[in-house]
Design goal:
Structural class of chain B: mainly beta
Order of helices and strands of chain B: EEEEEEEEEEEE
Strand content of chain A: over 45%
Shape of chain B: globular
Distance between the termini of chain A: 37 Å
Number of domains of chain A: 1
Distance between the termini of chain B: 41 Å
Radius of gyration of chain B: 14 Å
Strand content of chain B: over 45%
Number of strands of chain A: 11
Shape of chain A: globular
Number of strands of chain B: 12
Number of helices of chain B: 0
Helix content of chain B: under 10%
Oligomer: heterodimer
CATH superfamily of chain A: Immunoglobulins
Number of helices of chain A: 0
CATH superfamily of chain B: Immunoglobulins
Number of domains of chain B: 1
Largest sheet of chain B: 6 strands, mixed
CATH topology of chain A: Immunoglobulin-like
Chain lengths: 122, 115
């Protein structure tokens, strides 16, 4: 079956431009996560959706970053007025997590990752 | 707060020799720990997970990891390296907040396998 897909795979933007990155999760997955992976680093959490509700956006680095998932499936991460420090790989992951189960250690629902979008800001 | 530290940024082994990738964790309670692998131009893939069952966890492709609470370690091992094992490996701890699974990644260890 189809996994998580992301588009575009590569994006080059001039400093100050706005960009939009798309994530198509696995069909039926309730949870969707965005991570940012800087060069030579591990991914860092940005934001989390449960269906269309954005329940955690504590990892978004500034108010230039905005994410949405209006119909509870496809999600878009938007970065306004891009800066050079925004250059990174942006990863999307989805899981079949259902509300109320996440706190149980044994009930981990695997997060399936997309291939990422590599953003380069010149 | 939870965190993981990967002790080696690069590991190089010869094909057919053992692999050891080291990870220490910090957690205020008994953690859920994972190893993910990232091949170039591919998505992160779950290798194995520890969620308080057996302390020796077996994963895919012959990898395994042992949870040692006394040493706060979760090292990844494989008896015999294969060329296809060359990739970036991440030790990950689950941060449980608000009832969902937020993952906290280490900085990664790049594994090189030489003929």
């Amino acid at each position: 079956g189809a996994g998580v897909s992301q588009s575009p795979r590569y994006k080059v933007a001039k400093r100050g431009q706005d960009v939009a990155l798309r994530c198509d999760p696995i069909s039926g997955h309730v949870s969707l996560f965005w991570y940012q992976q800087a060069l030579g680093q591990g991914p860092e959490f940005l934001t989390y959706f449960q269906n269309e509700a954005q329940l955690d956006k504590s990892g978004l680095p500034s108010d230039r970053f905005f994410a949405e998932r209006p119909e509870g499936s496809v999600s878009t991460l938007k970065i306004q007025r891009t800066q050079q420090e925004d250059s990174a790989v942006y990863l999307c992951a989805s899981s079949s997590h259902k509300p109320g189960q996440g706190a149980k250690r044994s009930s981990y629902n695997e997060q399936f990752f997309g291939p990422g979008t590599r953003l380069t800001v010149l | 707060a939870q965190s993981v530290t990967q002790l080696d940024s690069h590991v190089s082994v010869s094909e057919g020799t053992p692999v050891l990738l080291r990870c220490n964790y910090s957690s205020s309670y008994s953690p859920s720990l994972f190893w993910y692998v990232q091949h170039p131009n591919k998505g992160l893939q779950l290798l194995l997970k520890y969620t308080s069952a057996a302390t020796l966890v077996k994963g895919i492709n012959g990898f395994e990891a042992e949870f040692k609470k006394s040493e706060t370690s979760f090292h990844l091992t494989k008896p015999s390296a294969h060329m296809s094992d060359a990739a970036e490996y991440f030790c990950v701890v689950r941060g449980v907040s608000g009832g969902y699974n937020k993952l906290i990644f280490g900085a990664g260890t790049r594994l090189a396998v030489h003929p």
